[in-house]
Amino acid sequence: MARTAVMRLLELMVMKEDIRRVIEYLGKKGNFEFQDGLGDGNSSASNAYKETFEQLQTIRSYLNVDEPVEYLDGTVLPGAAEITEAEKLCASVTSIRDRETKAADTLKRISDTLKETKAFANLKVPYTELEHLSFLTLRVGKIDPGYFDELVFRLGNRAVVVALGEDKSRILVASSKKGRFSVETELKDFNFVPLSVPKDFKGVPDDMIAGLERQEAEAKTALDAIVNERRNFAETHTAILLRLLCCFSIGMQVQLVEDKLESTQLVYRITGWIPAADTQLTMKELDNLTEGRIAIRLYAPEEVPSVINGREKVPVKLKHGKFVGSFERMVFSYGAPLYGTIDPTPIVAFFFTLLFGIMFGDAGQGLVFLLIGILLTTNVIKKFPSWNKFGPIFIAIGISSTVMGLLNGEFFANSELLIPFGEWLTGLFGEPRERVLELMPSADTIGKMFLFFLFTMTVGFIINSLGLIINIVNQFSLHHPGKALFGKTGLSGALFFWYVIAMVIRIVVAKSSIQWFDWIVIGVTLFGVFMAEPLERLLEGERPVFKDGVSTGIIVGLVEIMDTVSNYFSNTASFLRVGAFALAHVVLGFIIFSMSSLAGGAGGLLITVLGNVIVIVLEGMVVAIQVIRLQYYEFFSKFFTETGKEFKPFQFRYKE
């Protein structure tokens, strides 16, 4: 069985003049994980690359240029040429932005003046005459136009309200001298803002309004010209801007790492984990990069003090092809295997594909998954780029679902379309039948359904057994012979499970009964479960043998026996759900096919389409969850008693 990748600890002593190029190399290579992460270092230090990157980001947003998702080819650490280029680009865009802001402010000022002027166009009586009326108090100002009618209603006959503009935002309020205080109180409630009106104001000449309108049009034209200039600049400088963004993004991350490294005035120290297969090439390339100005030391995990004393776990890297590698996240979402143990990912990939196909058997719906997988793998679907790595999974479950659909005669819930194929295939091996697998419940298919459920339980037995074997091998590899031999998931528990299954098969097939030697084997294997902890401590030289006393050990042992018997029974019976979901899928397809046949025509076609969409989306999700659940609880639980640390190499990412 495949094991986790062999790792080595790499220690680098780098001269100050080479440190940035070394960090750039490690970030691009993406195969080096800093030991224990990075310290705080000089995190408050000024980062010129970061400042320039943020300026470029502001420019990108202003120019309305889409942000790159990943680095462009040939992206390098910024040098003097890139810094000069970025400064010139920032200066040019700043000039355009300042002129656009100034033009926009000018247009706003002219537009506001024109609006104010038009607002007083209805006021034809000299304001001084109105102001000195002995019985009137006048107020000119602004309110929210939405409050105009309510203000008129609230003031009633206490005051007269005149709208000075078409939008009712400027008003003239006239009231008696006696009622001016109550009117002013009401005006405050409506957020009335007084306006200053010249004493000799008597309306607005038409030529003044026309002049302001011409100025507004000229200001709009000037602003539009600058906006077009900005758009043209963005079109001609997009490639340069994106290249500089990528360069300074790398520079910013290099600087952040550099600030956190251990260093003296002349030398930086870097330690981290790297796959053993990459060590020779990495050391050679680093030596060439620094022209020999670097000291490199390599350590095996068993030579690292922090690993020996258990303070640090060696990071775990899994090495697979594209198909099996797409299932790694499923493993790591549960936990990373311990370093040096068996890698379960290939087993997960095989049984996930198999179980999904059994539970979701429809040739047409399987082809939909297959098509989605192809589109994701070929990067045709770009809206969800993070999903592309799951393309091989969709291809695998699409193929398995299609094969199962061909066997049970289902094509987009139609149970008649594949009858000729079923008759042809079964005819090759004997009497032709409509389909290879008869899963639809009926009086004639009870026996076949029983065999199908027996097959799913057999798959469950294999998965459980593989989990036990992996745990036993892992415990021996980790030098824990006690855990490998005793306990529920050790050799004693495994032998109990396997013997009981064999005994049941013997009783059913040979129609015999339980024999005296059956009780002996069961008793011996369960004794290994019952006395697991004391036997482990005895074998590994730990004392006392009963850590918490004999009575406590007996109680714990009895609980372990009950847990072992119930768990192995439930673990095996749990795989009946695989057959149940396969049966439910066929029945659901039959319901959709029957309803569409009864409706006929366009209605039948609509039912077929909607029914298949619902099945693909909802039942597909439910089946996937059930398969993951079986992997986690029936397979992983056998050997994931302790999790390791996932290998997370340092690499540049434009966007997390």
Explain how this protein is built.
The protein is of the alpha+beta class and 656 residues long. 59% of the residues lie in helices and 8% in strands. It has 23 helices and 11 strands. It has helices at residues 19-29, 48-63, 80-119, 127-131, 148-155, 180-189, 206-260, 279-289, 305-308, 322-325, 328-332, 345-359, 363-377, 391-408, 419-427, 446-477, 481-485, 491-510, 516-530, 532-539, 550-573, 576-599, 601-635; strands at 7-15, 33-34, 136-142, 159-163, 170-176, 193-194, 262-263, 267-275, 294-299, 315-316, 645-646. The strands form 3 sheets. Strands 1, 2, 7, 8 and 9 form a 5-stranded antiparallel β-sheet that branches. A hairpin with a 6-residue loop joins strand 4 and strand 5. Helix 2 (48-63) runs antiparallel to helix 7 (206-260). The protein is extended. The mean pLDDT is 86.
List the helices and strands and how they pair.
Blueprint (H helix, E strand, L loop, with lengths): L6 E9 L3 H11 L3 E2 L13 H16 L16 H40 L7 H5 L4 E7 L5 H8 L3 E5 L6 E7 L3 H10 L3 E2 L11 H55 L1 E2 L3 E9 L3 H11 L4 E6 L5 H4 L6 E2 L5 H4 L2 H5 L12 H15 L3 H15 L13 H18 L10 H9 L18 H32 L3 H5 L5 H20 L5 H15 L1 H8 L10 H24 L2 H24 L1 H35 L9 E2 L10
Parallel strand pairs: 10-11
Antiparallel strand pairs: 1-8, 1-9, 2-8, 3-5, 3-6, 4-5, 7-8
Helical content class: 55-70%
- Indicate the overall shape: extended
Counting helices, strands and paired strands, the structural category is alpha+beta
Poorly predicted segments:
none
Number of strands: 11
Q: What's the average pLDDT?
A: 86
- What is the makeup of the main sheet? 5 strands, antiparallel
- Separation of the first and last Cα atoms: 34 Å
The fraction of residues assigned to DSSP E strands is 5-15%
Write down the oligomeric state.
Answer: single chain
Total number of helices: 23
The whole-angstrom Rg is: 39 Å
